[in-house]
Amino acid sequence: MNTSTKNIKIPELLCPAGDLVRLKAAVDFGADAVYLAGEEFGMRTAAKNFGEQDLKEGIEYAHAHGVKVHIACNVLPHNDEIERLPEFLKMVNDLGADAVIAADIGTIGMVKKYAPNCDLHVSVQSGIVNYLTANAFYEMGAKRIVLARELSLKEIAEIRAKTPKDLEIEAFVHGAMCVSFSARCLLSSYMTGRDANRGDCAQPCRWSYSLMEEKRPGQYFDITETDKGTYILNANDLCMAGHLKEMCDVGIDSLKIEGRAKSHYYVSVVTNAYRGALDSLKNCDDDWQLPEWVSEELNKISHRNYSTGFYYGVPQNSQTYANAGYVRDYSVGAVVDAYEDGFVIATLKNKFFAGQVFDCLESGSAPFEIKAQPLYNEKNEAILVAPHPMMKIKIPFDRPIKSGSLLRIKEI
After folding, report:
1. CATH 2.40.30.10 residue ranges in the chain?
2. Angstrom distance (rounded) from CA 359 to CA 330
3. Which of 261, 272, 351, 366 would be 29's cystine partner, CB 3.0–4.6 Å?
């Protein structure tokens, strides 16, 4: 098989935006498109989300940088929500959103009627796992389908081969995995009264359980890791960074990073890492290997153990049974505001000391080190420690660093 990446089609990099700050981070660090939600009708109530003014500003900022905006309208709405939906769709249409993501059949019809200038993207919540369903949504006016996470690369290739070429295919490349099919889960509703299918999941799949099923002899769930039970529903996170070539080969048009409830730091790091990975793929003429710095970056964010999900068949080692905790190795020490007269000027987020070495994340490049030696406050006074969040600091450095760059501290 020819493994050359010359002339390969590079997919869109689609990144999450839980609020305006995170939208700007995704744009600045290399997203081709962002997806977000208004104050209702989106599947992530834990995120701050967007009021009308923030939505307007966010769309304008993204478009000014050549980045598209997709609006998640993917809840399964109840009767009392339907009457508010047309007004919301008219608003996003008038503000110039590029696409609306919907799952519910009734909502899909309303998108076509009330947001005619927006492309229709059919959400992962619709559970698309075959070309027949994909073609049915195409006939309903879909510009794009978001495939179920439960598909293999082989199955995706067949869907691509048996659907119209102008029907775009989007698939998840990174982020949290749901224990239920296409994230349609009732566990939260039963246990807490919070409906996961309307954006209010309490994530009971991440809790610790003890399980006994006396009528199924021979079927065992290992619950021996701790005396507190085991996390039998706790799916590992998806990471396909090292397999982007295969995802391109099967004809995926858009690679989606999960995480509208994740932090500004998370969005910045993951966007920059996948941007670097895709750019390296585009510029490589030989057998492609993921740049080492990209792998290192993806381990610098808060994450569960990584897996490749269902892309290579039934997952192996796809869950962590001992705990639901995240791996956290780095935190943000400061955010760069400007570079003036040979000094990096930054706003402090965490306490740090003169002489400390920081890992700097700057958009469009691999990370590099910067040493706070000497360290100054905003009055140009040399200091030994910067103790207060939000104080301004100055660090000499031999070249400009972009505003918005992050100075990171490795946690011990």
Report:
1. 330-410
2. 9
3. 272
* pLDDT, tens only, 24-60: 999 999 999 999 999 888 765 555 779 999 999 999 9
Residue 110 · residue 86 · CB < 8 Å: yes
CATH 3.20.20.70 location in the chain: 12-180+235-307
pTM of the model: 0.84
Compute the 3-state secondary structure of the chain and give helix, strand, coil in percent, each to the nearest 5. 30, 25, 50
Which token pair is 39?
A: 């104050």
Interatomic CA distance for residues 137 and 267, integer angstroms: 30
Q: What is the pLDDT of residue 320?
A: 57
Out of 2.40.30.130, 2.30.30.40, 2.40.30.10, 3.40.50.720, which CATH number does the structure's domain 330-410 have? 2.40.30.10
At residue 227, does pLDDT exceed 50? no
DSSP-derived 3-state class of residue 240: coil
Average pLDDT over the chain, rounded to an integer: 86
For residue 299, which of 259, 326, 264, 332 has the smallest C-alpha distance? 326
CATH superfamily of 12-180+235-307: Aldolase class I (3.20.20.70)
Task: Give helix 85-95 / helix 105-114 axis angle, nearest 10°.
Answer: 50
Q: 318 to each of 177, 178, 208, 232, how far by Cα in Å?
A: 10, 11, 17, 11
